[in-house]
Write a structure and sequence with these properties.
This protein is about 10% helix and about 65% strand. The protein is mainly beta. The chain has one domain (about 1-230): Porin (Beta Barrel), CATH 2.40.160.20. The strands form 2 sheets. Strands 1, 2, 3, 4, 5, 6, 7, 8, 10, 11 and 14 form an 11-stranded antiparallel beta sheet that branches. Strands 9-12-13 form a 3-stranded antiparallel beta sheet, with no helix packed on it. About 25% of the residues are buried.
C-alpha cells in the first residue's frame, strides 16, 4: 500500500515536467469552471466472502449511479494543459451474494450489500487538445487521482444476512488512474472518463457479534460522464 502511495505521488509531478517542456512563446492561460456529472462503478473482486455467503460473480450486478459536482482549475500552454479538480461525490454500490450451503434449495431470499459513500476525488490531469478552435475543441486527458472517503458517514445495508452486526471496514484513501475524452462547444463541454483503480478499497467485512473479520479484496473502477462550463 505504501509503495503504491509513493508511486502515485511521483506520478503527480509528471504533468508539470511535460508542460515545462512546451515552447514558451505559445502563451499561458488560466481558466476555472464547474461541472456536474454521474458515476457508475465496476469491480475487480478477487475475494469477497462472509461466513456462509460468497459474492455472486455470476449474477448481473445492478450498478447504482452516483453523482458529483466538480469545481476545477486549468492552466493551458498552447494545445496542452494541466487541470486539477475537487470532485465532491456520492458513490453508490450494490453487491449480490449467495448462500454457500442453503438450508432450503428452493426458497432463497435475495442476499445483498448496499453501500453509499461520501467522498472527495482529487485528480491531477494532463490534457492535449487535438482539435483546437475558439468555438469547438476535442481533447484527451489522463492522470492520477486520489479518492478520500468520509468513512464515518458512509451508509451500509446488509440485507437478509443471518448476522445483523456486519459492517465493511473501508480504506479512507484509494487511488486511480484516469483517462478521458472532452468535447468543447464555446464555453460548454462534455467529459467522458474511466478511472482504473489500483488500490484495494476494503480491509474486510467485520462481524461485531462474533468479533471476527472476514478477508476481502475489492478494487473499484469508475465510469463517469459530466457536463460543465469553463470561464
Amino acid at each position: 500500500m505504501y509503495k503504491r502511495c509513493h508511486i502515485f505521488l511521483l506520478l503527480l509531478f509528471i504533468p508539470f515536467f511535460v508542460l515545462s517542456a512546451q515552447e514558451s512563446n505559445k502563451g499561458i492561460k488560466f481558466n476555472a469552471g464547474v461541472k456536474l456529472g454521474f458515476q457508475a462503478a465496476t469491480y475487480n473482486i478477487t475475494k469477497f466472502r462472509i461466513e456462509g455467503y460468497k459474492y455472486d460473480d455470476s449474477a448481473i450486478q445492478s450498478n447504482k449511479t452516483g453523482y458529483a459536482i466538480t469545481p476545477f482549475a486549468r492552466l493551458s500552454i498552447g494545445r496542452s494543459y494541466i487541470q486539477t479538480e475537487a470532485v465532491l461525490s456520492v458513490s453508490r454500490h450494490n453487491f449480490e451474494f449467495k448462500e454457500i450451503n442453503p438450508a432450503d434449495q428452493l426458497i432463497q431470499l435475495p442476499t445483498e450489500y448496499n453501500l453509499t459513500t461520501y467522498c472527495i476525488q482529487v485528480p491531477l490531469l494532463y490534457g492535449h487538445n487535438f482539435v483546437f478552435d475558439d468555438i469547438y475543441g476535442m481533447s484527451f486527458f489522463t492522470g492520477p487521482k486520489a479518492k478520500f472517503i468520509f468513512t464515518g458517514h458512509d451508509k451500509q445495508e446488509f440485507i437478509n444476512f443471518s448476522d445483523t452486526s456486519l459492517y465493511e471496514d473501508l480504506r479512507p484513501i484509494v487511488f486511480f488512474w484516469e483517462i478521458g475524452l472532452g468535447v468543447k462547444i464555446s464555453r460548454f463541454f462534455f467529459d467522458f472518463a474511466y478511472d482504473f483503480g489500483f488500490t484495494d478499497n476494503t480491509r474486510g467485512i467485520v462481524s461485531k457479534k462474533k468479533n471476527k473479520r472476514f478477508d476481502a479484496e475489492r478494487i473499484d473502477n469508475l465510469l463517469s460522464f459530466s457536463v460543465g462550463m469553463i470561464f
